[in-house]
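Retro notes, item 3 of 5
We never archived the inputs for the zinc ion complex last cycle. Fixing that now. Sequence and ligand:
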Amino acid sequence: MEYLVIAFLIAVILILMQFKSRLTKTSRKEKKPAAVETGKPSKFCPLCNSPLSRGENVRSKVYPAGEKDSLMEVYGCPYCLPPAGKENRICPVCSKVLPKDGYVIGRYFVKPGKRHLHILGCTLCRKIK
Ligand SMILES: [Zn+2]
Ligand SMILES: [Zn+2]
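Structure as it came back at the time:
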């Protein structure tokens, strides 16, 4: 009788292990596109050029959202975004240091598997034009 119970328990454990491995396999599959979504870990902030690791994201706003060709306002990364960020936010177009309420504007293209941001200017140099 005891042997039967042990055999039954082993069978249950085996089933559970298979179930677990299936779960980890499916979660791995789910994680892969998410990693592509967040981009490569070796990102650089377009404003202060700080290398950004995973989870450190550049704060930005896209409008109209979801369009293939839209505009993006880039505010900065955790290293340069005021008040916590200490790095200077430099406009890649006019190379001026952005004021606290300033930001950079760019055209944002979404192509299958690719995202491209073309920076047009900041609140300082876009006003002049
Ligand atoms: Zn930055
Ligand atoms: Zn500028």
